[in-house]
Write a structure and sequence with these properties.
Layout (H helix, E strand, L loop, with lengths): L11 H10 L3 E5 L3 H9 L4 E4 L3 H4 L11 H12 L6 E5 L9 H14 L3 E3 L7 H9 L4 E6 L5 H4 L10 H14 L4 E5 L3 H10 L4 E4 L7 E4 L1 H4 L16 H17 L13
This protein binds 3-methyl-2-oxobutanoic acid.
Main location: cytoplasm
Enzyme class: transferase
Subunit structure: Homodecamer; pentamer of dimers.
């Protein structure tokens, strides 16, 4: 485990304590056993089984196509493969918008798969769902700003909360806290607005493209590690896994073609 990680399990109250202590919360997406185990060892506080799995694992061009069953399956893999982090699972598009019953039923399935909390996108229009989930014993993380499940309505990947939209975004974040959310993700939000929200809310904010004034940060792990090759302004690649994996695959192929692999030490005697 990294030196900066505390040994205790991270749960929702831990994140609130981190905010009080001024300790930044670290969150990465994870959808599989290897990344979950590695990020646990690295001291990441929260593993998000995001609907971005639709893009990063399943090859869709939008999270609109990610299915609940996919997230349930990936949540189980992540939960079985880590000890310390809080496992946060996304409610997929279409699993909560129509009714509070839908929200609770799908939330329960994510918790039974191993999640410690669920995340859903939206502001004041989904408060009944947030309240119903919290009343059912399911911790909820909000998500405002750019909400990828609404990309078709928002007209593309755009910064939200500029100009007149600022007050509405602020009111959404406050309302989510009042409805019982334990944290709120702020995606593609101007940094001054994200800072104002973070200073106002008692619960932590987790930013992605929302500046350093948030109480924590989240990135899609394949972007963070330079595997996806996706590096917009708000992403920093902390490694170049794409080149490294490509190099390994090419060297493997060369060795197979040259018949230098497998060598005697990789081969069984009769
Ligand atoms: O699904 C996801 O990866 C997310 C993050 C972008 C916050 O929701």
């Amino acid at each position: 485990m990294s030196e900066s990680a505390t040994p205790r399990k991270v749960r929702t109250h831990t994140l609130r304590d981190f905010k009080k202590e001024g300790r930044a919360i670290t969150m990465l997406t994870s959808y599989d056993t290897f990344s979950a185990g590695i990020f646990d060892e690295a001291g990441i506080d929260v593993l998000l089984v995001g609907d971005s799995a639709g893009n990063t694992v399943l090859g869709y061009d939008s999270t609109v196509y990610t299915k609940h069953e996919d997230i349930v399956r990936f949540t189980g893999a992540v939960a079985r493969s880590c000890t310390r982090p809080l496992v946060l699972a996304d409610l997929a598009f279409g699993t909560y918008q129509a009714s509070v019953e839908d929200a609770v039923r799908h939330g329960v399935e994510l918790m039974q798969a191993g999640a410690h909390a669920v995340k859903l996108e939206g502001g004041r229009e989904i408060l009944p769902q947030v309240e119903a989930l919290v009343n059912a014993g399911i911790p909820v993380c909000g998500h405002v700003g750019f909400t990828p499940q609404s990309v078709n309505q928002l007209g593309g990947f755009k910064v939200q909360g500029r100009g007149e939209g600022a007050d509405a975004l602020f009111a959404d974040a406050v309302a989510l806290e009042e409805a019982g959310a334990f944290a709120v993700v702020l995606e593609l939000v101007p940094a001054p607005l994200a800072t104002r929200v973070s200073e106002t809310l008692e619960v932590p904010t987790i930013g992605i493209g929302a500046g350093a004034g948030c109480d924590g940060q989240v990135l899609v792990w394949q972007d963070m590690a330079g595997l996806s090759g996706f590096e917009p302004r708000f992403v920093k690649a902390f490694a170049d896994l794409r080149s490294e994996l490509s190099r390994a695959a090419r060297e493997y192929a060369d060795a197979v073609r040259a018949k230098s692999f497998p060598a005697p030490e990789h081969t069984f005697e009769q």
